[in-house]
Amino acid sequence: MEPQANAPTESELLQIRREKLDGLTKAGVDAFGGRYDTTHQPGALKANFEENLTVSVAGRILSRREMGKATFFDLGDISGRMQCYLSKSDVGDEAYAQFSQLVDIGDFVGVEGFTFITKRGEKSIHIKKLTPLSKALRPLPDKWHGVTDKEIKYRQRYLDLISNEKSQDVFRKRIQMVAAIRNYMQERGFLEVETPMMQDVPGGAAAKPFETFFHALNQPMFLRIAPELYLKRLLVAGFTQIFELNRNFRNEGLSRRHNPEFTMLEAYWAYADFEKMADLVEGMICHLAENFCGGLKIEHKDEEGNVTKTINLARPWKRARYTDLLKSIDPKWYDYTPEQRKERAKELGVEIGANFEDYEVTQHVFERLIEAKQFDPLYVTHCPKELVPLAKQNAEDDSIVDVYELVINGQEISPGYSELNNPIVQRERLEHQAGEETQKIDEEFILALEHGMPPAGGIGIGIDRLIMMLTGAESIRDVILFPQLKRKE
User: Do 131 and 36 meet the contact criterion of CB atoms below 8 Å apart?
Assistant: First the structure.
């Protein structure tokens, strides 16, 4: 959008707003007021509209249209917006002049009046009294274009949420979905628990932790990479159905699908297995889609609103063994020697590190050629035991474990296990994973297992990725209110 000729500069706009603030102060108005009792939020009033209601509503002025001795303006917050009608004949010359000359788009005001429908059929509030509540000393983004700069969008999320209805919708849905997940679990007998976010041994996943230092105990500590080992202690204690909606921290890269601080649902169900947990997850995600996305077909759109792909969540979801999926890429995959698999991976266009172990070569082929291309739900089951050291070995084949990895939209959304509860095997697995760094083994967790943990099923669900899939967001930053950014110099 081209700047208008002779349009005021930013510094001039700031100065004008300061002068208006002075004008309000001289008129005896507290430009940064206090308590204001309301009867409705703007969006809720519009959604449940009735004529001739006496109302008191507060919010930010988002647009205004002067019409001689009257003004229409939109009052809004995260709930939505409501049209308001202010006339000189209702509030008097002085109050109307004060509003016209000293109150700007972006300011917070409170209005008292009654609801009506205009001649054009617009649901509106007919104002009898207007109260300035907070002066905005900076102008809002352009009302038609909103925040288009990605840096501003993520760093100043409040501006994005003020001006971008799509962002408002995504975050409203996220809030509602997280509440629905809690309800879904609780209605099925799961208890919500809390476990430490600061741990002396980071466990439950293979990831690099953030380090800190606890001065009172004179020892290093870590932000948790997963709550798993503490949740399993509660199975030992006698809890049978538990979950935690938690924040995890992994000191790794930033990308379209990764943020170092993220939200995870973890749940454990005594006497269940990975297949029962898969049923639970399938039901939960379909419940969310049907209640918040209009059905089981999820459309992803580009910036122009064109559909780029449609994800079909119709049940039952496909389940396939890890080995069978690899054989669909190459029927001879498991007949090759490890060196031949490396060569075959390169032929398939998959980049392989020089020091990759054999299972890592296979996993890279799986991630690039199967996972990344799978958009409808797929449960990948019976994975190699090296990939999942906390899962129970399969009774018929000890080279694999009883797990699933749920892939939707080209990425893992949820892993689920039949949990390993044999402390002897668990120690062997953790020692192999840790290598020479035996200090990474959580001896307190092994001690707990030695007191006996019941057979159990467990799940993790990456909430941010789940919200991405259900809302059509293409970057994890679009579903996290304040994503991690490099410090502004």
Answer: yes
pLDDT at 149 over 80: no
For the chain, the residue count is 489
Instruction: Please name which of 266, 260, 478, 257 lies closest in space to residue 372, comparing C-alpha atoms.
Output: 257
User: 124-163 burial, b for 16+ CB within 10 Å, e for fewer?
Assistant: bbbbeebbbbebbeeebbeeeebbeeeeebbeebebbbbb
Residue type, 89: S
Hey, which CATH number is domain 10-140, 1.10.10.10, 3.30.565.10, 3.30.1330.10, 2.40.50.140? 2.40.50.140
Strands 318-321 and 378-381, sheet pairing:
parallel
Mean pLDDT for all residues in the chain? 93
pLDDT in tens, 278-322: 999 999 999 999 999 999 999 998 878 899 999 999 999 999 999
Say what the pTM is. Answer: 0.90
pLDDT-above-70 percentage for the chain? 96
Report pLDDT digits (tens) over 229-287. Answer: 999 999 999 999 999 999 999 999 888 889 999 999 999 999 999 999 999 999 999 99
% of residues, the chain, pLDDT over 90: 83
145 has a pLDDT exceeding 60: no
Spatial contact of 115 and 55, defined as CB atoms under 8 Å apart: yes
Token pair in block for residue 60: 């930010």
Q: At what angle do helices 358-369 and 322-329 cross, to 10 degrees?
A: 70
Helix (H, G, I), strand (E, B) or coil at 123: strand
Q: CA 314 to CA 316: how far, in whole Å?
A: 6
Domain ranges across the chain: 10-140, 160-317+376-478
Distance CA 401, CA 415 (A): 12
**Measured distance CA(393)–CA(449) in Å, rounded:** 16
Distance CA 428, CA 424 (A): 7
- Fill in the DSSP letter of residue 420: -
* Token output for 352: 């392989």
CATH 2.30.40.10 assigned to domain 160-317+376-478? The reply is no
The DSSP element (H or E) to which 129 belongs, if any, is: strand 123-134
Do 259 and 245 contact (CB within 8 A), yes or no?
Answer: no
To the nearest 10°, report the CA torsion of 458, 460, 461, 464: 160
User: What is d(CA 96, CA 239) in angstroms, rounded to the nearest whole number?
Assistant: 64
